Request: fold
Amino acid sequence: MDIFLQQIINGLVLGSIYALVALGYTMVYGILGLINFAHGEIVMIGAMISLAAIQAMTGFALPGPVIVLMGLLIAIPACMLLGYGIERVAYRPLRRAPRLAPLITAIGVSIVLQNIAMIIWGRQYIAFPPLLPEDTYTIAGASITLLQIFIFLLATAIMAGLIFLVQKTRLGRTMRATAQNPEVAGLMGVNVNNVISSTFIIGSALAAVAGLMVSAYYGLAHYYMGFLLGLKAFSAAVLGGIGNLGGAMLGGLLLGVIESLGAGYIGPLTGGVLGSHYQDVFAFFVLILVLIFRPSGLLGERTSERP
Amino acid sequence: MKLSGRLSLSLTAIILVLSGCKEPSLLKADEQLVKIGHAAPLTGTQAHIGKDNENGVRLAIEEANSAGITIGGKKIIFQLLSEDDQADPKNGTIVAHKLADAEINGMIGHLNSGTTIPASRVYHDAGIPQISPSATNPRYTQQGFKSAFRTMANDEQQGRLLGQFATKHLLAKRIAIIDDRTAYGQGLADEFEKSVKSNGGIIVAREFTTDKSTDFRAILTAIKGNQPDLLFFGGMDPQGGPLMRQVRSLGITAQFLSGDGLYTPEFIKLAGVSSEGAYSSLPGVPLEKMPNGLAFRDKYRAKYNRDIQLYAPFCYDAVNIMIEAMKRADSVKPEKYLPELVKTDYSGVTARIMFDERGDLKAGAITFYRVRNGKWEVAETLSSTPLQSSLTETQSDKKKPE
Reply:
């Protein structure tokens, strides 16, 4: 039973990171109907910038968590700026272009960002310095680290904050209005360009947080790390119903747990025919099943109405 | 289409400029250009190791150029053509065709077994001698290609000794294995498993991951339930580092052993303090014990301003072996110097290198290293002929339980 519990814990922590990244995909899709494939790369840039800042500050005699927090506070505005810039350069000029065009610029931006990161930070893996406490607690035979608890709580708090923002604030209302129909929203006095920029900026801030979480959790950052993470998070967003905030969170957590349980049990259950390297297959198999029976995802209620 | 005229003109100009400086037409009458091909992942998760390989090759080529070698009455100018195969078997054959079309005189590479094996057919068909510095999967030299060589012990040799080391020296009984399902990781893990079984060990778990993963907690949790006293990983450092960290954070206290893929400074950096006490193996004799080993390390550091990652010495040796064979044959033509390559007996920076009839190393020694105080230290050197160990000073305290 402790193994089962351990797998659930592993899955929930991994899933909360997926969920945080998935929110970035789903917010942009909800408003623009566009899949921002560069989002995974923004996560990577967030990790890189925060690590660079952290490394620069390790000389000062500050407590570890404070240094990490300051790294995050530097990475967040940098990523916000980057997200804003990407939208202005790669998506806004193509807003009335056929749908494939922004998809291709998205992939292009993603490759450009990867290569810029490779030039700046090199091909080496960058190790996360041991600044955070590594306390481990044991609950019913399963071990959980302080960092895991913290990642899960922070991700949950951020998601709650985002829901509050979208549902209760003025900015949130204009976002929902733009998602329904940008032209009508514009006629009602909503500055659509500002709303779209804000969406990218908020999504990128979440990406910066997720980037730091990933690099702290796995202890490394690399210019290539955004690719697979982006793919998984995108799948999580689709699983939950892309365009739906709650769906992205649910999808992320589910994908994390499914992956953990899949990797842990697929070998014994199939008598060794399928090994644990099929964990991704397992996760995507669930995704396909969901999409067959609920094409709009678990919580997605409607597909985009706009062409 | 208005621009096309101007565009093609400028393209032509660019091509002229780019190719002009390299074309043999600009060489003096008594000079000859010799192209050495190289391929490794220069982008992607293993880019740091691929670049290290390229650096090793480049160092040897630049030294040969400044030494001024004369073959067949002509001064030889070596030129490096380096390609990025992205550690992907599909790209491996694409760049192999590209290099074969460029009529390289010899090939150093690829880095991974997965790319080396399919690419070796291309070089074989084109009649180009190939020396891989780091592909260890046995199949590479078992295809009957006379053109395929390697400067590193293969997985059979390495896996056998790893198994002996685990059971006889680390005294492990219950052993868990993880591999990354690449030709290298899987090949090494399979040989290790065979060797463990024949030495009386028990395999309590065999789990798998990929060469792009960073999360191993799920499989490690499953392994933890089997209570192994040794965990073996077949794969490279981008996975090994985080894996090691997660092993300790899940409270698994088993000993940790892996092959040459983890013998890098990067592994220790990525795993942090968790890496203390981890073992890895590397074919060859420790660099410090080779006549020119330390000199090579210093040259490398001076030139590239960084430490050797992993296979650079094996690449350096491979180039020099090829050049030596050309010298002995007094020809740079592949068909002329290939027979000489077979007869190689060369004291390089990694070992004394001789090839057997397949192109594998004859009786390669394997050295085991262990992380102590954040550095890889020599633990022991075993010879791949019947178990003979030349013990070093760390052997006695190694047996103490950690």
In short: The longest strand of chain A covers residues 136-139. Chain A has one domain: 2-293. Chain A touches chain B at residues 3, 6-7, 10-11, 14, 118, 122-125, 127, 130, 134, 136, 138, 143, 145, 218-220, 222, 224-225, 228, 259-265, 267-268, 272, 275-277, 279-280 (CB under 8 Å).
